[in-house]
Amino acid sequence: MAQSTGPAPGTSPAPSAPAGSVQLNVNTAINQTLVDKYVRDAPNVALAKCEGPSPSFSSPVLTFSNYTPGPFMGADANISADVELKPGTAAGTYPLTVTCGGQTYRTQFTVPAAQVAKVPSGAAKAGDGSMAG
Fold first, then answer.
1. Residue 5: beta bridge partners?
2. Residue 34 has pLDDT above 60, yes or no
3. pTM
4. CA spacing 20 to 30 A to 89: which of 40, 83, 100, 131?
5. Per residue in 36-75, pLDDT tens?
């Protein structure tokens, strides 16, 4: 009797690495906590590894511009786009997707609470003349 040369029952071949990916921002040598976090008051970039025509990013709270082909230093990606947070977006976790060639890749990213720059009431204001002699 011949033995079967296929995988044993109940096992499956090792899954292959995903063909694509999407992320918001890329870690740097200085900051290793940037991936999938929106940074307020700084440039933000969506990056994707996506094979196929017309890659397109989407998110309910982001706008995308300046699509640029890769490769990119420090990121396994072949397309990027500048990202702007839509005004009034609350802190929270939101989806980010990229679609190309009939494939869609998804991730989640976080938006931190806005830092409200407010002058404390009663504080001296520079140039108001209160210190003039």
1. none
2. yes
3. 0.71
4. 100
5. 999 998 999 999 999 888 899 999 999 999 999 988 887 8
**108 close to 61: Cβ distance less than 8 angstroms:** no
Which amino acid does the sequence have at 8?
A: A
Residue showing tokens 């017309």: 54
**Residue given tokens 């296929």 in the structure block:** 6
Contact 35, 48 (CB under 8 A): no
DSSP secondary structure string for all residues of the chain: -PPP-SPPTT--PPPPPPS-EEEES---SS-S--TTB--TTS-EEEEEE--SSS-EEE-TTEEEEEEEE--BTTB--SEEEEEEEPTTPPSEEEEEEEEETTEEEEEEEEEPPP----PPTT---TTSSTT--
